[in-house]
Amino acid sequence: MSRTPCTDAARGRRRRSVVAGALATTVLSSLALIGSPTPAHADDGQQANVDEKLYQNEQDVLTAMEKWAPVKPSESVMGYPKGLDRDKDGNVKAITLADVQPKYDPAEAVKNAELAAAQYAADTKNPAPLRASAEHLSTGWPGSKAANGPDIRPNTKNDVVGGQPAEQYCNMVNKDPDHAAFGQTAPCIFVGKVDEKWPVRGSTDGVAGGGTLSYKVSGSVTDEKSTTEGWSAGGKISPKITGTPAGDKGGAGGEIGGEVSFTYSYSSTSLKRVMNTLETSVQIEVPNDKKGYLEGRANGAYYTGYIVVRDIDSNNQESLVAIPARAYVQAPDTTSPQTWFKRLTPA
After folding, report:
1. CA dihedral sign, ordered 222, 228, 233, 234
2. Radius of gyration of the chain (CA)
């Protein structure tokens, strides 16, 4: 049975002083409005990210996303990634080793995980307790017995580490203020290779041309990283689109449905956050021979890889676990989780 793995003094200590890390809402920096000057700042959020250009083909949208929200071919997320796909009951959707291994060899992933953790530990901008946790992930605990080799799990749900699910394990934080390792957390990291960039996150119905489409876009982000506890896990954005009458093609009013809410992880190198998006008016002038609609694109990508965890038991024996996973990660150079595009297609 594993003991608490996340502190320097965990070895030889029988009393647990860690509980699941709390995820709290945090307020973030400015959000640039794509295609327009940076909007004025507000105390409770920033304007929704809307590209003012009319886009008539998919490749133009992808080119714009490459410019404004570039994603990396590989990515890492410290801790348990929040951007795992879940079913309607909140359970993680499993991905198998057979799905992941052809794209990303687990031995390579473990090496990359150790390198990414070492980079995180070396960055003095990161909190000191988390840097220590990342160092344990990279090199282990001083004086411990090194792991014989990685324990490669067959799927995402085969994830018990130290007698508990990986999500619970990875969210442990030492909350004892008198302990030398106060603030340290379990050594966990997700590493993955990109397999789907800028997924569509909902759109309005297409309306044939000859008029103006008018919408209001707003939303909020919750479950952001706590400023004092645990890894930078991520958040959930819940945008809202409202149709408003305008011209002979204006909306009928009321909220527009669609699957626009999604959860995401931050990359380990990202220090940018956003809280709320203020209501922004959007108009689409639709020609007679076109159909117009508003499309939401996520500012990031899905990555296929592994959650890599380092554990230690009461005999100072380390173990290294690699769990197949697929996670959505927000692009590191954007504060906005989502961009809205004004689209035109043939009627």
Report:
1. positive
2. 22
Beta strands at 172-174 and 150-152: parallel, antiparallel or unpaired: unpaired
The pLDDT of residue 13 = 33
| 184-198 pLDDT per residue, tens | 999 999 999 999 999
Backbone angles phi, psi at 279, to 5 degrees: -65, 130
Q: How far is CA 306 from CA 54, 94, 101, 132, 236, in A?
A: 39, 12, 10, 22, 22
CB 234 within 8 A of CB 83: yes
**Is the full-model pTM beyond 0.85?**
no
**Looking at residue 157, what is its pLDDT?**
94
Is the alpha carbon torsion for 118, 120, 121, 124 positive or negative? positive
CA 149 to CA 135: how far, in whole Å? 18
> Helix, strand or coil for residue 133?
helix
Q: Report the alpha-carbon distance of residue 41 to residue 264 in Å, rounded.
A: 24
**Is-contact 208 246, C-beta < 8 A?**
no
**Cα gap 121→131, rounded to integer Å:** 4
- Judge whether 335 and 224 are in contact, CB under 8 Å: no
